[in-house]
Write a structure and sequence with these properties.
By secondary structure, the chain is mainly α. The chain is built from 17 helices and three strands. The termini are far apart.
Length: about 400
């Protein structure tokens, strides 16, 4: 045998391994890279905005300007690890642990109502872990409701017994979602309830359930909101937020202060912004909670209309790819999971940006992938992992 042929045979396995990596049915080819890059780009922009909003706030950073930056990067790193874990397990195999995950999420929000729970910015929805870290269990309830409702609504359809979920199945799915919502209302965490309501509507629409359920749920939601208002379940600060939304001039130095200052910051940014780390409203610390709920105001002031539009555009890309994944899913379960995530990200992004602009009431919910917060980042990254898993199950021609 010649040295030449030996050399060819020797290096063939290496080329085969590389070929497998980029083969038509490989993970690399099946992954939605546009979705991945859009998510990572938002995380990157959020890291810069969080650092800009916190580097000068010594009362929050304990004198360390990198305090929030380091923790935000740690949260993003853990989130990426969770996303990889979800992809490795696969959304179909996760069906077996959905009951366990659902029960764990219920225990988490119940723990908030126990002495373990803490109040942050008026919302009693946190568990303080220590070392500057905290946990908001309601973020994981979003995933639990999506997976739980998807499992119930798709079981008989994917088995071929029915074309659409029947009324009894829809009732079971709604009952599964009602329990955590009722517990979260006791906190009360109105922002999370609003997001969960949007998720439930998106899940029902994607499941093929009768439109009567959708219209009935909307009517029930309106009736429930009126009842909550009349019964005085909401805390005073939440009522004041709605009052300030209805009349922005009501208390500009009090409950309407955040929105007023956020609008000033965004309006002063102009087309191209004042430059990263050079926003006067941001460096002057005029906008409270600017690293979390009002992080979009940093983008508007320092990056201008172009930077704010880039963030909205990247969110739009994520929603576009998630809708495409929902349409091409090979089973109803995958379709519902992807659609639930679309409803989640779409409503939460609209509400967060809307409350910063003053066109939506302040509800205290973060901007996905951009705002500082470990629980939110973990849940968002797990959702991306679920979307990637659903995509990997579809035919390559889809």
């Amino acid at each position: 045998m010649s040295a030449n042929s030996y050399s060819i045979r020797r290096f063939t396995p290496e080329r085969s391994a590389l070929g497998k990596l980029f083969a038509r049915d490989s993970i690399v080819r099946r992954m939605d890279w546009v979705l991945l890059f859009a998510s990572l780009a938002l995380c990157g922009i959020g890291t810069l905005l969080v650092y800009s909003a916190t580097r000068g706030r010594t009362s929050l950073t304990h004198g360390d300007q990198y305090y929030f930056l380091i923790r935000h990067l740690m949260n993003a790193g853990i989130g990426v690890g969770l996303a990889i874990g979800v992809v490795a397990i696969g959304h179909r195999r996760m069906r077996g642990v959905v009951p366990f995950f659902y029960a764990l999420s219920i225990l988490g929000i119940l723990a908030v109502l126990s002495p373990l729970g803490s109040t942050v910015n008026g919302a009693h929805s946190w568990i303080i872990i220590g070392g500057g870290f905290s946990l908001q269990p309601s973020e994981f309830v979003k995933i639990a409701i999506i997976l739980g409702m998807a499992m119930v609504l798709s079981a008989r359809v994917d088995a071929g017994d029915r074309e659409h979920p029947d009324h009894r199945t829809v009732l079971q799915a709604l009952g599964l979602a009602a329990l955590p919502i009722l517990i979260i209302m006791l906190m009360p965490d109105l922002g999370s309830v609003m997001v969960l309501a949007a998720i439930i509507l998106g899940v029902l629409l994607a499941s093929g359930a009768s439109n009567r359920w959708v219209f009935g749920l909307i009517a029930a939601g309106i009736g429930g909101a009126i009842a909550v208002w009349q019964l005085g379940i909401l805390d005073k600060y939440q009522i004041d937020r709605f009052a300030a939304f209805a009349n922005p001039a009501l208390d500009p130095a009090g409950v309407g202060y955040n929105t007023s200052q956020a609008r000033i910051a965004i309006g002063s940014g102009g087309l191209l912004g004042k430059g990263l780390f050079h926003g006067s409203q941001t460096t002057g610390q005029f906008v409270p909670e600017q690293q979390t709920d009002f992080v979009f105001s940093v983008a508007g002031e320092e990056l201008g209309f172009v930077g704010a539009a880039l963030i909205i555009g990247l969110i739009g890309v994520i929603l576009w790819r998630a809708c495409a994944i929902a349409r091409s899913a090979t089973d109803l379960y995958g379709t519902i999971v992807a659609a639930g995530i679309v409803a989640w990200f779409a409503f939460q992004s609209f509400e967060n940006i809307g409350m910063t602009l003053g066109i939506m009431p302040v509800a205290g919910i973060p901007l996905p992938f951009v705002s500082y917060g470990g629980s939110s980042m973990f849940a968002n990254c797990m959702a991306i992992g679920l979307l990637q898993s659903v995509r990997m199950q579809r035919p390559m021609s889809a």
